[in-house]
Amino acid sequence: MGPARSSRQRYREFVTAYKAGRLDxxxxxxxxxxxxxxxxxxxxxxxxxxxxxxxxLRPYRYALAxxxxxxxxxxxxxxxxxxxxxHIIDRILLNAGLDPTSRLLRLNVTGAAFVLVILLxxxxxxxxxxxxxxxxxxAILALRRSLYQRLLQLALPRLxxxxxxxxxxxxxxxxxxxxxxxxMAIVSPAISVLRLVIAVGVLLALxxxxxxxxxxxxxGIMLLSLTFARRIRPIYxxxxxxxxxxxGRVGETFSGIRVVRAFxxxxxxxxxxxxxxxxxxxxxxxxxxxxxxxxxxxxxLQAGVNVVIVWYGGxxxxxxGASIGDIMAFQWYTFLLLGPVWNIVNSFSELQRSLAAxxxxxxxxxxxxxxxxxxxxxDAPRLVQEIQFENxxxxxxxxxxxxxxxxxxxPGGTVVALVGRSGAGKTTVTDLVARFHDPTRGRIxxxxxxLRDLRLRSYRHLLAIVQxxxxxxDGSVRDNIAYGRREAxxxxxxxxxxxxxxxxxxxxxxERYLTFIxxxxxxxxxxxxxxxxxxxxxxxxxxxxILDEATSNLDTESEQLIQASMAALLAGRTxxxxxxxxxxxxxxxxxxxxAEGRIIERGTHEELMSARGLYYDMVLRQMESHGExxxxxxxx
Length: 636
Prior knowledge:
Blueprint: H1 7-20, H2 22-27, H3 40-57, H4 61-93, H5 100-153, H6 156-206, H7 208-215, H8 218-255, H9 257-262, H10 266-318, H11 324-365, E1 386-397, E2 400-411, E3 415-419, H12 426-433, E4 441-446, E5 449-450, H13 456-460, E6 463-467, H14 477-481, H15 490-499, H16 503-506, H17 526-540, E7 544-548, H18 556-570, E8 574-578, E9 590-595, E10 598-603, H19 605-611, H20 614-625, H21 630-635
Parallel strand pairs: 3-8, 3-9, 6-7, 7-8
Antiparallel strand pairs: 1-2, 1-4, 4-5, 9-10
């Protein structure tokens, strides 16, 4: 890595790329900075996603129609308002044929009607905004629920490819931006076009000369706005990418805060954070200067239109071609005219962002769920009589199997130990048992039935897993123990904790079973976390249990407590144990020594020790590393 660039250097590089047009190509593709996808295949996909989006919006069609109806009423009432002013000026105030009493009476009646129209317009506008926001909220909630449900059901490799940041990005920003498509592509443009048509129609009906004068500036305004929007959008995309990178680094910093402090990197992390934020600030001010130019241009154009209307209107008035009320009404209509123009321009600029987010969301929704049930699939049996592996082979990448020629029969209630070096395929075998993956070739049978012929949800009711890296949720002790059985009683939860040798430390906590343990259980020691995981598995009362290095990271005392609790956990269950500490697998009914995905030795501890093969050598090396001689080893 080269020396860190200052925020000034980064900013100069950003400005150079912006002026050269390279920033557009680097940011138009989305958050990852890749070039935007194009071509017939991408356009076909986008059309398919749009059709799916329209189909997904179908349940909200009546609510959408209600919003349009309210918008139409509001637009109609707003277009009436300038006519009241025109009537008051021309027909009342400047009407020389009216006496003061009649003039006052007409002024009061017209003014009261004017107020009523304004009140009704604002009330209906508020109702329209509320209904529109309610529609957006309902659409966001429904889409977020569908996306979250699909993410929960996706295959693990797909989730690994998306990473945590990608998943969160889709669930938060992408969903809201996709729902913004409803506003930006349908509601806002349609309402703006409606208001524009009404305003132009009224203007032409009032005075076609003034109307053409007012509308002459619209093409220039639209061109100016689209040009500025297209030039400013890459800046904000670059900003968003920078902020995501900074926030990601912050998350990493506090996830690894112990490493940061151990290597005295606090100041460097602070400097990196401020460097990133200072660069973002420079870019924000760069964008603000250009936006300021846009708004100044808008203000000048609007003021110029008003000046032209008054000037040209005054000329027409002197020649008898326009009244004072016409001129005043046209100024009001010009304001009503420019608003829809800006909304239409803004809709165009936001549309591409919404479409890109929609593609990311509906791409996930179009993915197949993880192992959908086969037609005719049945519920899993309640009792495990036998699990049989028939020539099982599995590969993550085609042509590179990590498990091969795996054949073994496991009677129900048997403890099977998987041993071998890292990368031998032990965890993959247990993942196949849990149906996180399905065999590439071969079969796994439960009581003679292929696992793929069983309903996945019912099969996983038979399972519980205790891993080396215990995962606990940011909740109470009780919630974590009862995670697999939310309906469990307090007595059942306490009994599971006692059997896991966890009750003793739980009652010492400030709020006992209601104590919150922090994210990933950070307020507990490693041994305490492991015992909670065992209690969780005991309460689930599984038929099939998977223990993946459950005690490898614990001290001797914690391991002894866990081993004692394991005896209660293993009783009567079909168990697959992965362990590097061979002392933990001696009581297994069957030990499988694996290498390069194959079983190279099998048998009980005594049988394998008598054979004096690779298993014997492994045990010997471990015992010698702990200071025990071979005679002690053999005696065991």
